[in-house]
Amino acid sequence: MEELIHSGIARYEYRHFIIFGSASQFAAMATECAGDQGAWWEFHDAYLLDAQARSFTRAGAIDLARDNGLDVARFTQCIDNEEHRDRILEMQRHARSVGISGTPTFRINGQPAARSLSGIIEQVRAAAEAVENQEGS
Amino acid sequence: MTRLFAALLVVGSIAVACGSGGEGQPTGTATSERVERQATVAQQQQAAPDADVEEQPVDEAEPQQQTAAPEEEPQEQQVVELPTEIVGEHKGVRSERHVLGEPDAPVEIRYYGDFT
Q1: B78: buried, middle or exposed (CB in 10 Å: 19+, 13-18, 0-12)?
Q2: pLDDT tens sequence across A19-35
Q3: Which residues on B lie below 8 Å from A55 (Cβ)?
């Protein structure tokens, strides 16, 4: 999969789809606040992979912001004011409008993805070939 | 070496996101309790849509806002618009908010996820 991204064949986009309530929503908002300072993916990775970050607390988010060298005051103001709440909810509404009902869910060029990782990779390659053929004709 | 490490991290990140489930929900080798729990909840959600979803009141309230005061809810606000983003590099790949990879890549892999 990373080869497909590194080679420029595919790009990977993450969309929030909140299904676990306030902790999920807080994590999404904190990630967006980090994104204001260019650290969206650092928070994304931490919230998926770092056990400590996965407490999803305000204090933990602030620690994470500090660890990533962010402007902590700005970050704290952002999460406390829920500055990205509307954007996340709008993202949620948009996802529902295109038929998303749970997570994790993948779409490849807007189409439902295969059920296995290998199937997704094949699907991405096929989609890339289709685009190449279209451009070549 | 750096590129290999970055590639592994990207795969790891994506693999963590992968799990078992229904349509578009791949079975990855890194299936975790979190993903299994998500799949379970997702199934519950599909069985009982909107149950326990925090934004549910907003979803329900929105049409009322549109009918009650449409001029306050312009059409453009219904579109998911992300502001101009800081473009950087993450694990060796071009990155901006929500997106890894080149913006003109012909294939878009979109993942809908929940961090918890």
Answers
A1: middle
A2: 999 999 999 999 999 99
A3: none
